[in-house]
Each structure stands twice: as structure tokens, then as C-alpha cells.
Amino acid sequence: MTDVLPDATERFARAAIAEPDETLREMESRGEDFPTVGREVGQFLRLLARMVDAERVFEFGSGFGYSAYWFAAALPEDGQVVLTEHDEDELDEAREYLRRGGFADRAVFEAGDALETIERYDGPFDVVLVDHQKHRYPDALDAVREKVRPGGVVVADNAMVSGAQDFDAILDALEGGDPDLDAESRGIAEYLTTVRDDPAFETSVVPLGEGIAVSYRR
Ligand SMILES: C[S@@+](CC[C@H](N)C(=O)[O-])C[C@H]1O[C@@H](n2cnc3c(N)ncnc32)[C@H](O)[C@@H]1O
Description:
By secondary structure, the chain is an alpha/beta fold. It contains 9 helices and 7 strands, in the order αααβαβαβαβαβααββ. The protein is globular, with a radius of gyration of 16 Å.
């Protein structure tokens, strides 16, 4: 797997942000063998939520609640983060972690397929995190395109790397080539080209964690 950042830059990015609270640190220990967004991206997501005065956040793929916890801390008391997860044990863990953080009232826990769950929500959302099955990223974008308010943001994790994702082939596709892509890489490449070419969005890829695509809805 290609590293997104050189080690020293990664250390720099880590050292320049404040220590997270005790529950987040515990979640990080829990997440050592689980693909959370990681601390640098978590901090960035919380900052982003604050910058757009987020009140409602929707996540595709919440695991045991690490990214949702970062979001929840940025929301007002009557704000809402919708967690979606098809593993009910992970969702139970998320419920417990968010309760411990004092965020139970601003979290909604939806068991099942995130793409089915989103159909039951009207929006508008201020921030959406796409972090579920890579081959279904384009479907998630399609599902939230009209549900993110103008001035809101869609963030896709693993924009650059993840597991077997083919970095070089995705780059080739972004540069106009026609590479052979496995299903996951095809999902990411299609997501990135679609959102890049959509005049309703303005996108940058930020090389934190495994790379996040941040798309502002005009
Ligand atoms: C990369 S992890 C999410 C990590 C989480 N966003 C965080 O940073 O803490 C992806 C999660 O999405 C879940 N998942 C994958 N596809 C899903 C789907 N279609 N609907 C609901 N959950 C899904 C997986 O079970 C897994 O827990």
C-alpha cells in the first residue's frame, strides 16, 4: 500500500493537534485493528463541522462510532449525527462510547444498510461522511447529492488508499486513462471523477489519514 504522507509529515500532523479526550483515546486503542478514520482525520472532521456550523451529520459506515464521536462533539445540544452500521455489535459499542462522551441525545443509531437508511431521511444535512463499502461510494454520492444543503460538505474517506485499493490505477483514471480496476478501486475512481466533474460541488483531496475527498456543495 502506498503511504499518503512521509513519516515525518505524518508525525508533524499528529503533534500539531491537541490530545483527544480519554474516551477517544480508549476508542483509538480499541481501533488498532479496525479501520477508523484515525486521529488526524477525526480532528479535521470536527473542525469542518464547526466551520460549517453543522447541526445534522449523516455517516455511511460508522463502525464502533469513532468518527461519529468527533462529529458529535462539534454539534449543538439539539444537533444530530446519524450513525449507520450493519454490524449490530459495533453499533452497540458506538452507543456506549457516545453515551460516555455525553452525546447520547445527539446520536441516532441505525442498524442495517446505510444506502437503505438514507432513503428514510429527507435532509438537509450539513456534513455527510462516506466511509462504507468502496464499490458503493458512487451510490452514496447519488443518494445525498440533493440532501446536503448548499454550503454543506460531503467527505469521502479512503480517497487515496485503503487495503487492496490500487493507487496507481485510480490516479490513471483521474488523469483520463482507462485502467483495469477492481471493484473497490473502480468505486473510488468513479466517486472522485463524478464529484470532481459535478458543477454543484467543489472538491479537494486532503492527504490526511488515508486521504479524504472534501466536496463543498455550492
Ligand atoms: C471503515 S469502517 C467505518 C469507520 C468509521 N467511519 C470510523 O471512522 O470510526 C466501515 C464500516 O462500515 C460498515 N459498513 C460497510 N458497508 C455498510 C453498509 N452498506 N451499510 C452499513 N454499514 C456498512 C462496516 O461494517 C464497517 O464497520
